Amino acid sequence: MDIPFFKNILRDYPKFWEEYIQYFNDKNSTNRYVIFDLKTSSENEKNKLLVLSAIGIENEAIYIHDFIEFYIEQSINTPEEIIFHDILKNKNHEKLSANEAIIEFINFIRNATLVSYNIESDIEIINAILEKLNAGKLKNDFMDIGIMYQKLKNLPEDEIISLDHLCDTYKIKKTGRHTSAGDSYIMAQIFLLLKRKLKI
Description:
This protein has 200 residues and is of the alpha/beta class. It has helices at 4-9, 15-25, 79-84, 98-109, 119-132, 145-153, 163-169, 180-198, and strands at 33-43, 46-58, 61-72, 95-96, 113-116, 142-144. Helix 5 links the parallel strand 5 (113-116) and strand 6. Mean pLDDT is 87; it is low at 81-85.
């Protein structure tokens, strides 16, 4: 008889996951936030990871050097993916498999609070890849800038706030919009503004 509880206790996790878990066992907390963006494409009703980027924030400042960006190996990209996500311009970038990119992402985020737009769907994608790697689910706290804005303006939960609307509201330049790195930087700026307004 399989007992999930005992299977989890006896489970052999990969080294990267054991190191990741250790950050949450340390008594020292962190004030680091990681703003991240995934670019995906729906293929056969499954999300295909195309690009991943993330940037760190500490002490109310965006650290440009605390940054990662990975283009994911694909057997083929559709014309829409190439144009919309700037893949053609970056075709000479070194590419990783989705598994390799997620491992690097885990090594980068450590125990930081994760921040994104529509973050729950991104976390589902990451957790699905982690499951294939025989790892657990993300343990990080997370925040969604759309929900932060809803709380600030006392908006109903079902009111959808677009990233473009947030850029226009706070006069954030849309340089690099719809690219993973560009959207990560845009979200980092919006996050700091909302964090201050909400006094978090």
